[in-house]
Amino acid sequence: MNLFVKFMASPAGRITRIVASIVLVALGLLVMHGIGGTIVAIIGLVPLLAGLFDFCVFAPLFGAPMSGPKIRAGK
Amino acid sequence: MTDKIFFERLRSNPRPVVVDFWAPWCGPCQVIAPAVEKLSAEFAGRVDLWKVNADQQPELLRSLHIYGIPTLIAFHNGREVGRHTGAASALALSTLFKSALTGEKPERTGPELTDRFLRLGAGLALVSLAIIGGLSGTGLLVAGLGAVIMFMGIYDRCPVYRVVSERLKNLLRRAPTG
Question: Which whole number is the average pLDDT over A21-48?
């Protein structure tokens, strides 16, 4: 299985996604303004939800399942 | 049925028992009823399911310290090994039946403690960011989502899922076919 997908599904990868997306939301809400800020904040919410609820949006692109537990089990 | 008779029957029952305390007016009881019946059929001959109308047995509820329904209690050799109060997932209910069968405490089926803390932390971060950024437009959306995520960290269920899913189902039912 792809190393990138494996890392993203690991606990370290999940925390990385959550922290990165909170940074993106902060950037969108506090630093950028207008439509650009809104887009960045909303895009930031996607990896946040994926990290919190243990799924990987891009995993199917690498031929892996979306579910985090399935990726970790190597299915 | 008095408490005494209930516990005597429980002890003399040849199989483990799951007791479902329910009431006709209780919405969540109706929600879990099909899953409970399905599990009862699946465990037939190994675990018995007793259904007790909570309205008719207030004394029994008091002696078992039941303060809300639906409550399902798993008994093994007349001894309580696990219980669940409120609407439960099929997995949680199945764990309760297995627990009655083996006599071991049910395994935790909810999210890990780390997941709960992650949800609470992330939800709190979103709400804080939204408040700092001013609660308007996207800020409100982010604050709402943060609140929902925090709620899910505590209760492990989405507070808006049922409302949204019911409406979606109704919409799909109304949609013309063909």
Answer: 90
Count of pairs with CB atoms under 8 A, one residue in A, one in B: 42
Active site residue B158: no
Cβ neighbours of A26 in B, within 8 Å: 129
Give the pTM. Answer: 0.57
Element spanning A71, H or E: helix A68-72
Give dist(CA A63, CA B163) in Å, integer: 34
Is the CB of A29 less than 8 angstroms away from the CB of B130? yes
Query: Which has more confidence, B84 or B109?
Result: B84
Q: What is the DSSP letter of A28?
A: I
Q: Which residues of A touch B141 (CB under 8 A)?
A: 42
From the list A51, A67, A57, A54, the residue with the least C-alpha distance to A19 is A51
Task: Give the position of tokens 């008779």.
Answer: B5
Q: Does B124 touch chain A (CB under 8 A)?
A: no
pLDDT band at B37 (very low <50, low <70, confident <90, very high): very high
* Annotation says B26 is catalytic: yes
CA-based Rg of chain B, rounded to a whole angstrom?
Answer: 21
CA distance A41 to A26: 7
The pLDDT of residue A58: 86
Contact A9, A49 (CB under 8 A): no
Tell me how far apart the alpha carbons of residues B142 and B135 are, in angstroms, rounded to a whole number.
Answer: 9
Q: The complex's ipTM?
A: 0.84
What's the rounded mean pLDDT across residues B162-175?
72
